[in-house]
Structure formats: structure tokens, C-alpha cells
């Protein structure tokens, strides 16, 4: 087994094949399972991406979970959505992340509350993900988004901060979108806004992914292809019905359905996907959705 370093940005910019894994904070205050799953990944991933009320389901905050991981020697990737915060809160949380030593940030617009467990919640969407990338760029330059000073005077380029940030910002993209052209346009806008890396939705169609990578290479973007671990055919159908933007193909569903041990089949398929993707992009992002303790087995299957 080849051990990997823990500095996500350094590995990505050094052209290593980068491995990141996704952890969801608990729906409550008991972080023991989350931290135990993280410990199983120590030395095997470059970064742990912590979701921010994923699928609009209320959970422990991503920033607090990232801080706990940072204290334990991990290089967390702080996921932040535009759904729940206005620009005041977004900027404040990004400053908080920087003060806590959390530099990697994944920016998302966020699923609408209608998709989650608090459908009556009011969506904010003061900014979208491209605009938030521009905000991070400005914070890195030591300025905020304010248009009026504390004394009421109008500001053109924001207020000067008492200490700026040094955030390493990324975004998401769906290379299997159909049609692909609108996704490519949004992708190029995010690159222009300062996205330094991209994590994709689950990749199954390698031909379409290769087509997308042609555009990505032209823009010099670092792409981490999404690899989804699914435990059963029923779980795959649930993902297709309830997880926005993710589609598990019917051929995968049938293979899981016909397997005597669907979880083992899912682990095998995820490991094979990583092997296929190694020569195609900068790295992979593993999404286990409740199966985080099995991510090491996926890495074993992939030979990592």
C-alpha cells in the first residue's frame, strides 16, 4: 500500500494523483463515528471534504467538523453552500475558517430546502457559487464585499480587512450533464472566478468524461472525478430518486442486484473506477454516503 501525504494543495499542484474522501457530519453532537471513519483514512487521503447540510438535510456544521479534523492532523476541505447564508455570513464564516487554519474551501450553490428535511426553511441564495468564488478572491486580496463604510460613506472596492485570507478555493461540475454545453459555460465562469480545483458528480460514462476533460485541459483546470460507493440496487435507486445531480446507470443497478454480496460488488466497482480514472484526471473524490468506514476497502481495491 502506497501511503499518501496530507497536504491537499501541495499534492494537487505537484501533479500527484490526489485522493479525497467525503464525510458527512452527524445529525446531532455525537462525532465519534465521524472521527473514527476519519482515523481509518489517516495517511491514505490528501483531503477530507466535509459536507454542508448535504441534500438540504440539517447536520452539524461543516466548519466545526473541519476544525475537529484539523486538530487531529487532517487537511480538511471546508464545504460551504450559498443556500443558507447571505453575504455577511458567508464572508464571516470564510474569515473564521482562515483563522482556524482551514484553507481548502469547496464552494457550492446548494440544493433547495425543498429537497431536504426542513422543506419549510427559507432559502437565501444571496450569492451563487461563481459569485462566492469571486468573494474568496477578494478576501485573499485583503478586501471584503461591503459597499458602505462604518461611517456611512460609499465604498467602490470594499473595505480593507485587518488581515486577509489565503484560501484555496474549488467548485463542483457535472461532466455527465445532458446537454453538456450549459455545464461547460458555468464551468468556465468558475475557472475565471478563481476556482483552483473541481470535484465532479459521480462519473460512470468515461466517453462523456473524456469529452469533458478535453475542455478542462484547455482551461488548465484540476479535476477530481467523483466515485460513488453504493451498497445495493435499492440504495442505487434511492440515490437516483433523492440525491440531486447523481444518476447511477441501470447497468450498475443490475450488477448490484445480481450479486450475492452487493456491498462487495459496490466496493469492487468503485475500486475499478479509480483504476480507470488514474490516467484521465488529477485525482478522485470518493463519496460513500453512509458507508465511510468502507472507503479504505475501496482504496485497497484500487491499489492505493
Secondary-structure-based class equals alpha/beta
Mean pLDDT score, rounded?
92
Query: What name is given to the CATH topology?
Result: TIM Barrel
Largest sheet: 8 strands, parallel, barrel
Along the chain, the helix and strand elements come as HEHEHEHEHEHEHEHHHEH
User: What low-confidence regions span 5 or more consecutive residues with pLDDT below 50?
Assistant: none
The largest beta-sheet arranges its strands as 1-2-3-4-5-6-7-8
Number of strands: 8
Can you walk me through this structure?
The protein has 304 residues and is an alpha/beta fold. The chain has one domain: TIM Barrel (Alpha-Beta Barrel). Helix content is 39%, strand content 14%. Helix 2 links the parallel strand 1 (18-23) and strand 2. Helix 4 (87-99) crosses helix 5 (129-140), helix 8 (233-242) packs antiparallel against helix 9 and helix 10 packs across helix 11. The model has no long low-confidence stretch (mean pLDDT 92).
Summarize the structure.
This protein has 304 residues and is an alpha/beta fold. Helices cover 39% and strands 14% of the residues.
Which structural traits does this protein have?
304 residues; single chain; 8-stranded parallel barrel; TIM Barrel; alpha/beta
Write the layout of secondary structure elements.
Blueprint: H1 8-13, E1 18-23, H2 32-39, E2 47-50, H3 62-71, E3 76-81, H4 87-99, E4 104-108, H5 129-140, E5 168-173, H6 181-193, E6 197-202, H7 206-219, E7 223-228, H8 233-242, H9 250-258, H10 262-277, E8 283-287, H11 295-302
Parallel strand pairs: 1-2, 1-8, 2-3, 3-4, 4-5, 5-6, 6-7, 7-8
